[in-house]
Amino acid sequence: QKEVEQDPGPLSVPEGAIVSLNCTYSNSAFQYFMWYRQYSRKGPELLMYTYSSGNKEDGRFTAQVDKSSKYISLFIRDSQPSDSATYLCAMIDYGGATNKLIFGTGTLLAVQP
Amino acid sequence: GAGVSQSPRYKVAKRGQDVALRCDPISGHVSLFWYQQALGQGPEFLTYFQNEAQLDKSGLPSDRFFAERPEGSVSTLKIQRTQQEDSAVYLCASSPGGGKGYEQYFGPGTRLTVT
Known about the structure:
The structure holds 2 protein chains of 2 kinds. By secondary structure, chain A is mostly beta strands. Chain A has strands at residues 4-6, 11-14, 19-25, 32-38, 45-51, 54-58, 61-66, 71-76, 85-92, 102-103, 107-112. Chain A is built from no helices and 11 strands. Chain B is built from no helices and 11 strands. In chain B, a hairpin with a 6-residue loop joins strand 4 and strand 5. The model of chain B has no long low-confidence stretch (mean pLDDT 95). The A-B interface holds A 4, 6, 8, 32, 34, 36, 41-46, 49, 88, 90, 92, 94, 97-106 and B 4, 31, 33, 35, 40-45, 48, 55-56, 59, 91, 93, 95, 101-109, 111.
């Protein structure tokens, strides 16, 4: 079993919809939770990060972390065709020797105009 | 300022050839990471540098993989005697380190195809 599980999709929604992307994880030592966006043939771009449990909002994006359930979410409001990309969740055991990111497989999102 | 750059962007190698992939991190970033991304998968950690010191190479899949960062800036990932299973996108990321060690900024990657 992978440390981080993410539904690969693809997920197709109409423009303006609310999108919910989720990951589960098994390592309770994870403390930082990131969401990256990756366009085709590009490197991952850091969208948001959250430390420990709680919510964080940035424009149309909201990240939620529930450490008790080992479950994280990213919500995208008023989705736009330009949001079409692969969304990767990633986590860090910040107390470890290396701040290496542990990624999910990524969810491919298509927002239809 | 400039982001992380990688070269070449695309590389085709015949099985058995050696390849070298270059990463130029963001200026001043202490930490540098290499990841491997197979098609349809998330990136997987290969190795980590803090300045010129390679502190973690636990993700390197075999002794054919070697990475260096001799002056604490540019890094090179070398793969000897390439095999078809080495075909992937190789991503480099840099981080300021210290209290911002969780922020990693990725380059565009090098897509390696071994034929």
